[in-house]
Amino acid sequence: MTAVAYDLASAAAHQVRGPLASIRLRLQMLQDQRPDIAELPAVLGEVERLAALLSQILAWGAARHPDPAPEPVEVLDVAAARLEAWSVVADARGVGLDLGGTAATALQVHGALEHTLDVLLDNALQAGPPGTTVTCTVHVTERRVHVAVTDEGPGMTGEEIARAGSPFWRGATAAGRMGTGLGLSIAASLLTASGGRLSLGRAASGGLSATAVLPMAPD
């Protein structure tokens, strides 16, 4: 999809968001008044799915036009905060969370690492079966800070890894899950705007290892 098409999609999302919010509110009010209408929960579920898609498109548009000046970020602190935020989800799914590595200061456009880790942890927790562990590790090499999120799920084929950053693409393991296929694309855009990149590969466990790479902040 071209940059012009993305911008048009983002503009359309802005236009649709208001009416969709109004429809959702009216449906919720109707559900409160008429709980006997059996189809309403399903209709509301579809509206919520569309709202999530619009939010992802708008976030992607923002990722393509980020704040121009990168800012320093304490990587290990952000990673610890995001793991804490996702711990409730991890507990509910019976998946462990583990954090390790080295404290480091990187450069990012505002919110890039936080948003990226939310995407990577969400994906990893959905992929990892109960009883497994999602590991987040921070390390530094050649003035680059690497934040790797690794799961013990089924992983991806080489072809799937090659396509995983494409907007709206979803792999075979995502069947039946809520999602839009924009998460990794948004994360990759934010990291690129920060002077970094998103790297995907197979983990030694057989699962997926997704790594956010950011430039190290000057001393």
Task: Please tag this protein with its features.
2 domains, 6 helices, single chain, five-stranded mixed beta sheet, alpha+beta, two-stranded antiparallel ribbon, globular, Heat Shock Protein 90, 219 residues
Characterize the main sheet.
5 strands, mixed
Helix share bin:
40-55%
Number of distinct beta strands: 7
* Fourth-level CATH superfamily of the largest domain: Histidine kinase-like ATPase, C-terminal domain
Average pLDDT level: 81
Enumerate how many helices there are, as a single number. Answer: 6
Order of helices and strands: HHEHEEHEEHHEE
- Please indicate the count of domains: 2
The amount of beta strand, in percent, is: 15-25%
Q: Using the coordinates above, name the CATH class of the largest domain.
A: Alpha Beta
The name of the CATH topology of the largest domain is: Heat Shock Protein 90
**What general outline do the C-alpha atoms trace?**
globular
User: What would you call the structural class?
Assistant: alpha+beta
- The second-level CATH architecture of the largest domain is 2-Layer Sandwich
